[in-house]
Amino acid sequence: MLLELAREGDWLVHVHIIEVRELRATDPDGSADPVVVVEVNFGDGKKQKAVTRVVQNDRNAVFDETFKVRLSEERSDELITSALGTKIAHACTSIPDAPPP
User: Fold this and answer.
1) Best-predicted range by mean pLDDT among 5-9, 11-15, 18-22, 25-29?
2) How far apart are CA 95 and CA 24, in angstroms?
3) Does residue 95 or residue 91 have the better pLDDT?
4) Cβ(75)–Cβ(8) below 8 Å
């Protein structure tokens, strides 16, 4: 229903990463160093990516970070086929554009 109402034009999407809970331990000491990757794939193959800071030694990390994704002059068919995804990774994982731990 909402997608049927999508109108062409400029859009600004706010993505708020609040926290992660009960992550699997990835470090030998039983902790984790999480980072969250937010990626928006547009219908025409364009992508935007944002990465949170790394939270050291915390399996229940609070990020409280907001990202803005600007969609400029998007056609309604591109909006309908766009997708937003998130990935929680360990800081030692190779993530392009990730801040150093």
Assistant:
1) 18-22
2) 18
3) 91
4) yes
Pair 69, 83: CB distance under 8 Å: no
CA–CA distance, 55 with 17 (Å, rounded to integer): 13
3-90 has CATH 2.60.40.150 classification: yes
Domain ranges of the chain: 3-90
The pLDDT tens digits of the residues spanning 33-53 come to 999 999 988 767 778 889 999
Beta bridge partners of 31: none
Tokens of 22: 């009960």
CA-closest candidate to residue 35, choices 92, 97, 88: 88
Contact partners, residue 53, CB within 8 Å, separation at least 6: 35, 63, 65, 99
